[in-house]
Amino acid sequence: MLGLAGLVLAVRVSLITEVPSERVAAPTPTLGTTAAIGAASTVELLLLLGLPRSRWPATLAAAVAVSALVLALGGAGWLAAVGLAATDAAAAVLAAALLAGNTAWRRGDADDARSWLRFLGVGAVLSPLLSAVASTVVVTADSGTAWPGAETARLAGAQFVSAALAMCVLVPLALRMRPDRIRRLAARGRLLEAAGTAVMAVVALSIVLAQPYVIPLFALPIPLVVVVFRIGLVGATPTMAISALMVLAATAAGTGPFVTMAADSRHDGIVLAQLFLLGGVVMMLTVCALLNRRGGMSVFADEDLLALIALNSGDLVFLASEGGRVRYVTRYSSASLHRPARDLLGAGWRTVVHADDLPIVDAAAATLRDGGDVGPVTVRLVGADNQHTWMTVRLRCTYVSGDSPGQVVGVGHDVTSVREHEHALAAQTARLRDLADIDPLLRIPNRRVFTEALAEDWRDAAATGTALSLLVVDVDRFKRFNDRFGHAAGDRCLITVAAAVRAILRPTDLVARYGGEEFAVLLPRTGAVGAAEVAHRLCQAVRAARAGEGHQAETVTVSIGAATHYPAGRSGESPGTADELFEAADAAMYQAKRAGGDRWAAASP
Fold first, then answer.
1. What mean pLDDT is predicted for residues 302-325?
2. Domain-by-domain residue ranges, the chain?
3. For labelling, which of 253, 304, 310, 478 has a CA lying 20 to 30 Å from the CA of 173?
């Protein structure tokens, strides 16, 4: 890039030195000279916009050194070479200092009116004016031409137009002909339209340049305006650059309407062509700015009215870039987010969304990129004081032109109070379900839950063809234990037994209090052998868990009856209904009791 800047500077001297003097010849202007005037400061500006400010001094020093060296080798005096190189560097620094702060515009994330109008003020007025005046002073001082005078004014005017045209054509082209914009244009199905429109504009320009009349020139901006409206800057900027090269090439070759207007003077024709092109570019960028303003991308003409509506709607209304960076937000956020609204400007929405809800944000962003609308989705927004605000948000992505970045319009409604009521209702429902389903003493399911689970497991066994086993567990001699140690100790005894039973069961098994000191254990997908093993382990576990405290601790035993249902078994080998399964297990439990307790018994087939 630095070498390109030096070469451009070497070419640009040829047209500047057309000032009559004894020391400098007046060469014929060519396409290279006309296209190169002012391009050096533009190239340096693009370099600075892509670098951090800390690297600007070193970059400018290198650019000035290389440019001055190339100019000197090309025949310019060292004083003029250094002066011209420093002039372009100063113009580039001025433009970069005024434009680099707008990061969103520079990166192509925003095409708002204010940014483009600022660029026109800098690129079409301030920077070219500095370059024209300073370089004219340097050249006239080096050539001995009187200052000020008619020739210096003519020279400064030509330099101003050349520098303004170069900056207004090359900077938008470099900043907007980006791969992401081309991909976005292709995703919206407008890439072929962009290419076709650009070709038609070039063909129309070729026809106009092939004849000497002036009036058809005024129809040339129409295709550019159409391109801006339909496609955006990604199509308009290369079309404008190609058009500028074609016009300058034809005029430098001595043909076309501009040479006719200048009475066959190629120099004056080139200046007229540059003025016409500059006007066309300024008009194109102004239309883009006004179009973006109409689309509500940055500056709303009726912002006060919109703000009044948004503030009185009671909702959070915001505008963000397609990447999620907030650009406008109503003052309502101060209350709903527990933070000032200004804290959100420039921030990404991921910074204010609760970490657990970020997958919802990522899914919403993907939907917007695919062209869909989002909503309603509910996420938690985190305030400055770490308070959470539940917000139901609707999002829509709008596009002002075919290649412009999407602008996300969002409306959020505070549903924190609704969510709090929902949570309170859910907690109350859970408490009621706990009272209805859980035994308050033992904290295990009650008989109602057991009955429902038995019916469900019975259906599952029938559907899968697997076995279902049931154990009925009864505490031995519990009445005597109660009479001896009291009801409180009896309660603790039942708690001990329930804990011992739960400890050896699988997560898929169920133990419930069936009534009094009797428990029921469901063993889904378990055959008779598995049920026998579980019953044996239950007897051991309860025996090892001594009930009572201190010297009053007593060994407690249980009697267990086991029964198994085989859906695929032969008739008569297993109970035919869920009630029969329970009755078989209950009968087996009494058989174990009659045998002395502290044992288990299997139901007879």
1. 66
2. 2-294, 303-419, 438-602
3. 253
